[in-house]
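#structure-requests
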Amino acid sequence: MTLTHILPSLRRSIADPISRDSWPEYTTTTPDDVTIAGLSLVTLMQWCGTPCVHTAAAVVPGTNGRPSETELASVVVVRVVSASVTNGQLAVWIDGELDGCAAIMSETRMIGRASTAHPVGAAIYSASAYTPVRFAPELPVDLTTGDLLVIPCVGVTALHDVQSRSSHSQRLTEDRGNQRDVAQVAVCGK
């Protein structure tokens, strides 16, 4: 348990800790942003929109952040399309898909604003009905439409891996090859 868990009001001045082994090289955090090698992910999202992806060197496990010379890691930034709380469980719909990446859901963080709300477990639903539900163990209960989430991923994730099937023709073609109903695949979470 960290100090920000005990006193949530500290989240306005102290960032929750991260597992350095799960994030790309030179990752630092602030109460409302994640920066990788000097690149703010909030700024990246402002330039590129959501979903967006950033890839950098992975870290060598157990070295407290030393960059790997051979491995890469990515982060995905998505926007919350809808969020609701039922029986203390948060249900969150996002504008991207996570089935095309090796997401580390335990490290999911909200960026763009600092929240002092207590964390709860969250079921994450992607833009497509074909994507399995993911679970993030700690997201602020006051998560709302428009909030940003950043999720680290093992290995390289390309933008087309997380874009909604309805906005990417290659994924629509793959779905047709898998005998799926294209009319259902074209559902967009935006």
